[in-house]
Specification:
Shape: globular
Mean pLDDT: 90
Radius of gyration: 29 Å
Strand order of the largest sheet: 1-2
Order of helices and strands: HHEEHHHHHHHHHHHHHHHHHHHHHHH
Distance between the termini: 86 Å
Structural class: mainly alpha
Length: 626
């Protein structure tokens, strides 16, 4: 078992090295084989370990070597595999493999094919390292690694300056959150004298630090998660991350980067449960983000950005569950979301590929007959994300809504509104893209088989993924709740609502979602409304279409002042204090070189005269001055 654990992150790392070093020599077929084998083997190994942990819930700890040993600071490089970890490994390697398989067709004509797969393998490696980490420091390495890879892949088509700006934005915004995580690591070390999960949680059970220390640690960890998992106020990077190839968007949104924040809170649940203030803050930020992103999505016209804002909104629901202490509920929605969001993004990729890179839904329409397989796959994905029974999204989201009801009817009210908005903007996309007249003027490419095949697997998982945690009200036994034992000294909160109340809540949920569906159908199918440019909108609709001007606000408050300050410092300090002395030295050296170069004439007679003058000078020195 130890060998399998070591091989899980090793294979994608080897895939990166082989494709990275040989990307100019390997052909596309060989590169694709290397990249996909590098992901499928970790999937196989993860399934074997999953089966082993099903019978023996004892966590597996593998310490490879002593990494850091400075005074009292002792950090081992090792892996920690419990049931929480193995679920993440299955999601990362499973969904990641399907995305890699899909990418063969999507990126086939791209000149950077081999380089793309090298970065994708590296992305998966760092995410695997993140969830397998035995301590916070190794987790932080994976945390930073996925941030670096997102920069590489968002700006993959670096000939486009806008894509480069989007990559830099993602990188910088995430660094803000990462600073909070780094400070939390220092607090953890100073409080527990260890960074190992087992040591920290064991010490926490014996000698609980002061409430102020717990507050500081959890607040800093939470700041880190708002960056990675795109919550208010650090969510603005994720919509711009759509600049990269569509498989990158699917990998970031479904299986890797954005799920890191959810995992970190679930892993550190024992710490967060001791800080009720931060738990309430997580709930507030989560529900605010879920609603805010859903409202923005209503007026977006870029197919990938609509899905991006839906990701931000769904992550908000996961944060609500985490803040309520329902860690297994959050993980349940994380898993089902990975299935249907990967499906939706890859469907968007098929549409974009077929329509010559067109992403504006206003230029689509009538694709039901042109792309029939994509139509049915999209219908499955949209029914799932909208929470229509019996699709998996219904069970995972409804569990969070029921938890919200137990906490506060007001909180439940906000979450149920978000569910209705989700159904509205997703069916808006569906009706505009697939129905009415075709507005695309060029020839539409056929559906690539290599791109469609992986989508059927994701569609199957989207439909039946809810079976892993069917609640008792439907005759299930909540398998995931029982399987998911988070070995961090805490237990997840379980639903305690009366069966009759739960039926009523489900009925209201389905009714609200149905209202969203019928409103979208009325506007965009029956009345055939095509969205207009934001410049033609007025009032609140214009504000929503321009994303509440948050990017412009951040630019005015943070970006522009920093740019002005950097320009001022460059002109007043950098140039005068640093550049000027160096430039003066270079001028002096150049001037001396110019003067003395005149002595190098190549005239032999002149050189003999200088030699004689030198000898005479030495003679005078010896006779009269010495």
């Amino acid at each position: 078992m130890t060998l399998l654990i070591i091989l899980i992150p090793l294979f994608p790392l080897l895939g990166f090295i082989i494709n990275g070093i040989g990307f100019r020599k390997l052909n596309k077929k060989a590169s694709a084989w290397v990249a996909n084998l590098a992901i499928i083997f970790p999937l196989i190994f993860s399934i074997i370990i999953f089966a082993n942990l099903a019978f023996d819930p004892q966590a597996i700890q593998v310490n490879l070597f002593e990494w850091i040993s400075i005074s009292t600071l002792q950090v081992d490089f090792g892996f920690y595999i419990d049931r929480l970890t193995i679920l993440m490994l299955l999601v990362i390697s499973g969904v990641g493999f399907l995305i890699h398989l899909y990418s063969i067709g999507y990126m086939h004509n791209d000149q950077g094919f081999q380089r793309f797969f090298a970065f994708m393998n590296l992305f998966v490696f760092f995410m695997l390292l993140l969830v397998m980490a035995e301590n916070y420091l190794i987790l932080f390495i994976g945390w930073e690694g996925v941030g670096l890879c997102s920069y590489f892949l968002i700006g993959f088509w670096n000939e486009n300056k806008e894509f480069n700006h989007a990559a830099r934005k993602a990188f910088i915004v995430n660094r803000i959150g990462d600073l909070g995580f780094l400070i939390a690591i220092f607090f953890i070390w100073s409080s527990f004298h260890s960074l190992s999960f087992t040591s920290v949680f064991d010490e926490l059970a014996k000698n609980q630090p002061s409430q102020e220390i717990i507050l500081a640690i959890t607040l800093c960890l939470f700041i880190g998660t708002t960056g990675k998992s795109a919550q208010i106020p650090l969510y603005t990077w994720l919509p711009d991350a759509m600049a990269g190839p569509t498989p990158v968007s699917a990998l970031i949104h479904a299986a890797t980067m954005v799920t890191a924040g959810i995992y970190l809170i679930a892993r550190s649940g024992a710490l967060f449960l001791l800080s009720p203030i931060i738990m309430q803050l997580i709930v507030i930020v989560g529900v605010a983000t879920a609603l805010f992103a859903a409202i923005i999505a209503i007026k977006q016209n870029d197919i990938k950005k609509i899905l991006a804002y839906s990701t931000i909104s769904q992550l908000g629901y996961m944060f609500v569950a985490l803040g309520l202490g329902a860690f297994s509920s959050a993980m349940f929605h994380l898993i089902t979301h990975a299935f249907f969001k990967a499906l939706l993004f890859l469907i968007a990729g098929v549409i974009i590929h077929s329509l010559h890179n067109e992403q504006d839904i206003r230029n689509m329409g009538g694709l039901k007959s042109k792309l029939p397989k994509t139509y049915w796959l999209a219908l499955i994905g949209i029914l799932t994300i909208s929470g229509i029974p019996p699709f998996s999204g219904f069970f995972s989201k409804d569990l969070i809504l029921s938890m919200a009801w137990e906490y506060s009817p007001v909180l439940w009210g906000f979450t149920i509104i978000g569910a209705g908005l989700t159904a509205f903007y997703m069916f808006r996309l569906f009706f505009i893209v697939f129905f009415n007249e075709t507005r695309f003027q060029k020839q539409i490419h056929h559906e690539e088989k290599t791109m469609i095949r992986p989508l059927w697997i994701l569609a199957f998982l989207s439909i039946f993924g809810g079976l892993m945690n069917i609640p008792s009200i439907f005759g299930g036994s909540s398998l995931l709740d029982h399987y998911l034992i988070v070995d961090s000294g805490h237990e997840t909160k379980h639903l305690a609502t009366d069966a009759s109340v739960e039926w009523i809540l489900m009925g209201i949920s389905v009714a609200i979602v149905s209202i969203g569906f019928f409103l979208a159908k009325n506007f965009y199918l029956n009345r055939r409304i095509v969205p207009v440019e934001s410049m033609q909108l007025h009032g609140f609709a214009k504000v929503v279409a321009n994303k509440f001007y948050i990017d412009e606000l951040y630019d005015k408050i943070f970006v522009s002042p920093i740019n002005r300050l950097s320009t001022l410092l460059e002109q007043k300090w950098d140039r005068k204090l640093f550049d000027a002395p160096i430039e003066n030295i270079t001028r002096f050296v150049a001037w001396n070189g110019k003067i003395f170069s005149k002595l190098q004439t190549g005239n032999t007679g002149l050189y003999i005269i200088f030699m004689m003058l030198g000898l005479m000078g030495l003679l005078v020195y010896e006779l009269y001055l010495n």
